[in-house]
Amino acid sequence: MAPYLSDIADALRGDNYQGSISLESVYRPSNATFEDGFKESLPTFLELFKK
Predict the structure, then answer these.
(1) pTM value surpassing 0.85
(2) Which one-letter DSSP state was computed for residue 49?
(3) How far apart are alpha carbons 18 and 13 in whole angstroms?
């Protein structure tokens, strides 16, 4: 899904979407937890969707 997030964010902005967007991460780094994966993914998600 990651390769498409930038395009999705751009399309939502182009449509002037004003609703909520959530990150439902299922990424789990090696030897870590799903929470760790969420925390690792969050900065990129915020960067893409806060523009």
Answers:
(1) no
(2) H
(3) 9
Q: How far apart are CA 2 and CA 45, in angstroms?
A: 10
Q: Are 51 and 9 in contact (CB under 8 A)?
A: yes
DSSP for 7-42, written as a single string? HHHHHHHHTT--S----------TTS-HHHHHHHHH
Q: Where are the domains of the chain?
A: 2-12+23-49
The residue behind tokens 């969050």 is 42
Average pLDDT per block of 10 residues along the chain, 51 residues long: 90 96 92 95 92 64
Instruction: Work out the angle at residue 25's Cα, subtended by the Cα atoms of residues 11 and 51, and round it to the nearest 5 degrees.
Output: 35
